[in-house]
Please model this.
Amino acid sequence: MKKEDKLFFSGLFFLTLTLFLFPFTAYLFPKAVLGWEYYIPDAIVSLVVRIHVILHISYELAFLYFMLFLFSLSLFTGLLAYLTAHKLSQMELQQETQDKSPAPITKKVKQNSRESTSLVLKMIFFITLVFIVANVIQWAISSPPPGT
Model:
C-alpha cells in the first residue's frame, strides 16, 4: 500500500468520525446546556452516571463534561482529517509540478486551503442552521395554543 493510500484512508476515517461526532454532540447540546428532557440512549446515560459517581459532581455537570469531551474529540478528528487532506493535496501538487518552480505550488496550495476552509465553514453553518430550524419547528409544534 502506497503512502498516499494510507493517508487517503486515514483521512476518510477521521472525516467519518468527525461527521458522526459533531451531529451527535449537537443532539446532546440541548439537554446539557438548556436542560431539555428527551430520549438519550441508555449507554450515554450510564456513562454520564459513571462520570457523576467517579468525579462526585452533579449529573448535569457530568453530562456537560461528556458533551464537551465529544465536541473536542470531533474538533480534533476534524483537524486530523483536514491535515491529511492538506498533505495529500500537497503531495499531488508536487507530483504534478516536479519540474516547475515551487512558487506556483505554494500559491495553489493556499488557494486549495482557502477553498477547503470555506467549504468546512459552510458545512458547519448549514448544520447549525438545520439544527436551529428543527428546534424552532419542534417548539412551534409543541407549544400550547394561546389562551390555555
